[in-house]
Amino acid sequence: MEERDELKQELGMLNVSLTFLLLILFAVFLSLWSALIQRKELELAIEGKEPSQTPPVYFLRQAGSAITVGCLGFFLCLALETRAKAQAEGKPAAKRSAQTNVLASLLVLLAAILRLKDLQMTQEQTQTPLLEETTLPD
């Protein structure tokens, strides 16, 4: 009976993992959508038309990045849990593999956080007028 409960628990965790993988796919879709909008803006600029007809891509990119960070945080937690189980079992190969997965998950999460933060800072700098522009007389 204990083995069956453990299998049910693993199935539940796999279902949650699949949900987060679907969210990552959705984030990739948002990124693709923003790239297609940017391509359209470039095509309009080449034709000499005003690109104001296209929606802003910042919010799509920010949403995609935020979703990605959240999902990667989940996968880091999952890797930490797997490492704890591997250490309890004491199998050297499983422990090494679990440790590698924790490090990989951490690095990927940090990269996603850096990209999100950069996106936010870039957006803030493009929206905030320069001090010199706001204090100089007309």
> Number of helical runs?
4
State the total count of DSSP E strands: 0
Average pLDDT reading: 89
Beginning-to-end CA distance, first to last residue: 80 Å
Low-confidence stretches: none
**Gross geometry:** elongated
Report Rg.
22 Å
Q: How does the major sheet shape up? A: none
Tell me what portion of residues adopts beta-strand conformation: under 5%
- Structural category is mainly alpha
- Helix-residue proportion: over 70%
The H/E string reads HHHH
Can you describe what's shown?
The longest helix has 45 residues, at 2-46. It contains four helices and no strands. It has helices at residues 2-46, 58-89, 92-127, 131-135. With 138 residues, the protein is mainly α. The model has no long low-confidence stretch (mean pLDDT 89). Helix 1 (2-46) packs antiparallel against helix 2. It is 86% helix and 0% strand.
Key attributes of the depicted protein:
single chain, 138 residues, mainly alpha, 86% helix, elongated
Could you write a compact summary of the structure shown?
The protein has four helices and no strands. It has 138 residues and is mainly alpha-helical.
List the helices and strands and how they pair.
Elements: H1 2-46, H2 58-89, H3 92-127, H4 131-135
